[in-house]
Write a structure and sequence with these properties.
heme binding; 140 residues; 2 domains; Multidrug-efflux Transporter 1 Regulator Bmrr, Chain A; Reg_factor_effector_dom_sf; 3-stranded antiparallel sheet; 3-stranded mixed sheet; alpha+beta; Heme-binding protein soul5
């Protein structure tokens, strides 16, 4: 069993090295029908599968652009509500181009490293759709 795990790791590493040699710099946001688990939005963050075992997958995600906002709070739930509202305003037209932007997946929340009784800065990010990856509208 130990030898199979080492073999799996070597195969994955070989695949990763080979993949990195042919990497492009284009963002990978696209049709959500390409992913079984992404069904709530039309576009999702896409990835290249490097290798897969019964226990894990090794994936490569290209660089992509996100729109993000910070919110300071004691609790993630309060910060997330305020941050989501701010980002929602941006995608519904509160941007320098007045563009309505489709929702994509995933939505990320970066959690602060803090104790329960301390304030922390939470960062929420929306993935920008493929058509806005090169020239995203600026927020107001």
């Amino acid at each position: 069993m130990h030898r199979n795990q080492n073999s799996d790791i070597m195969i994955c590493l070989s695949g990763l090295v080979g993949f990195l040699l042919v990497l492009t710099t284009e963002a990978r946001v696209g049709n959500s029908s390409e992913l079984k688990f992404c069904s709530e939005t039309e576009q999702c963050l896409l990835f290249d599968l490097i290798c897969k075992t019964e226990e894990y997958e090794v994936r490569h995600y290209d660089s992509v652009k996100w729109v993000s906002t910070n919110e300071t709070s004691f609790f993630m739930e309060f910060a997330a509500m305020k941050a989501f509202r701010r980002l929602y305003e941006y995608i519904t037209g509160a941007n320098d181009q007045g563009k309505k932007i489709e929702m994509t997946a995933p939505v990320l929340v970066k959690m602060p490293d803090k104790n329960f009784w301390q304030m922390g800065v939470y960062t929420m990010s929306f993935l920008l759709p493929a058509e806005y990856q090169i020239n995203p509208p600026k927020p107001y």
